[in-house]
């Protein structure tokens, strides 16, 4: 965690955003702050797109052009996401409220009954009764005599946001990797890491023959077990599986139950585990599956999979 602004009373604690909807229903966000590599344009476009119900590709973000952007504190560490993001959100929110008021008059409906999505404003529950954002913009900029009483022409807002005190930001980065969805994947499951048959024969066989499996078209060779990722990582290191076999942890047994290949190992203190099996999965489709009928390694070894390939 780190402080992202110095609080109200200084330029670094205040930021501005100017949000405009064009005649074509496209959105422009002009920022007082600017990016120095932290994907600011993408972040601000997402904020505006979510609030105004448009596609992110229909949002243009302008920063660093001081002749057309509002005066702001510029870039500096991680302040832009908190303060610039808040300014963008509030400006977009202001424009959204005006869009709803104008569209409500056009549709002869209550503003609170309207939804905005994909550049259209429609009555909730009756999506065919709608107007486009471009229709609303035309009324706001051109046919202004048709605006509801008390509504000023235009479809834009400038907001300056000041953080009330020092703000702290935190982040969590998650990488999602799809293992089984594409390519030809060899997946084998074992009842438990570091158990005798699994450690002495099953995993070592696939480590030894990983290159042969790839030569027959396998893009990935993976081992899965109902163990936590720390145990699977340690087992993989112990078996020198790196570069040969991907070690997958099914810690809560969710995958194993989903494919209906669980077994009850509570009699020997293992609880719910996976049955021993081997499978070939091609672009998400199982083309080969061999489940061991009992103890031992008889139908799901690396040699069995090689023969199937």
Walkthrough of the structure:
This protein is α+β, with helices and mostly antiparallel strands. It has 2 domains: 2-169, Aldehyde oxidase/xanthine dehydrogenase, molybdopterin binding domain (Aldehyde Oxidoreductase, domain 4, 2-Layer Sandwich), CATH 3.30.365.10; 184-308, Glutaredoxin. The protein contains 8 helices and 16 strands. It has helices at residues 40-52, 79-107, 133-141, 196-208, 210-215, 229-238, 254-258, 302-308; strands spanning 2-3, 14-21, 27-31, 59-62, 114-117, 120-123, 126-132, 156-162, 168-169, 184-189, 220-225, 246-249, 262-264, 272-274, 277-282, 285-291. The strands form 5 sheets. Strands 12-11-10-15-16 form a 5-stranded mixed β-sheet. A 4-stranded mixed β-sheet has the order 4-3-2-8. Strand 5 and strand 6 form a beta hairpin. Helix 1 (40-52) runs parallel beside helix 2 (79-107) and helix 2 (79-107) packs across helix 3 (133-141). The mean pLDDT is 90.
């Amino acid at each position: 965690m780190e402080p992202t602004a110095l609080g109200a009373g200084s330029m670094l604690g205040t930021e501005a955003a100017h949000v405009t909807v064009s005649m074509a229903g496209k959105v422009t966000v002009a920022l007082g702050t600017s990016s120095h590599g932290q994907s600011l344009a993408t972040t601000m476009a997402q904020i505006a797109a979510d609030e105004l119900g448009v596609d992110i590709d229909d949002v243009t973000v302008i920063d660093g052009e001081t002749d057309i952007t509002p005066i702001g504190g510029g870039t500096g560490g991680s302040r832009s996401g908190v303060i610039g993001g808040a300014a963008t959100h509030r400006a977009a929110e202001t424009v959204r409220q005006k869009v709803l008021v104008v569209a409500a008059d056009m549709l002869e409906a209550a503003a609170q009954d309207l939804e905005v999505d994909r550049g259209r404003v429609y009555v909730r529950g009756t999506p065919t009764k709608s107007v486009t954002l471009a229709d609303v913009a035309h009324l706001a900029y051109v046919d202004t005599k048709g605006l509801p009483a008390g509504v000023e022409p235009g479809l834009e807002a400038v907001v300056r946001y000041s953080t009330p005190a020092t703000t702290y930001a935190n982040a969590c980065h998650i990488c999602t990797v799809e293992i089984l969805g594409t390519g030809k994947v060899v997946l084998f499951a074992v009842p438990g890491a570091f158990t005798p048959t699994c450690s002495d024969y099953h995993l070592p066989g696939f480590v030894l023959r990983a290159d042969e499996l790839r030569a027959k078209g396998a893009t990935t060779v993976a081992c899965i077990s109902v163990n936590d990722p720390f145990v699977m990582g340690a087992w993989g290191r112990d078996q020198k599986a790196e570069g040969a076999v991907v070690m997958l942890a099914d810690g809560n047994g969710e995958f194993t139950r989903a494919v209906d290949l669980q077994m009850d190992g509570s009699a020997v203190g293992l609880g719910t585990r996976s049955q021993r099996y081997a499978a070939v999965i091609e672009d998400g489709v199982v083309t080969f599956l061999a489940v061991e009928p009992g103890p031992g390694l008889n139908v799901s070894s690396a040699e069995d999979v090689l023969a199937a390939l």
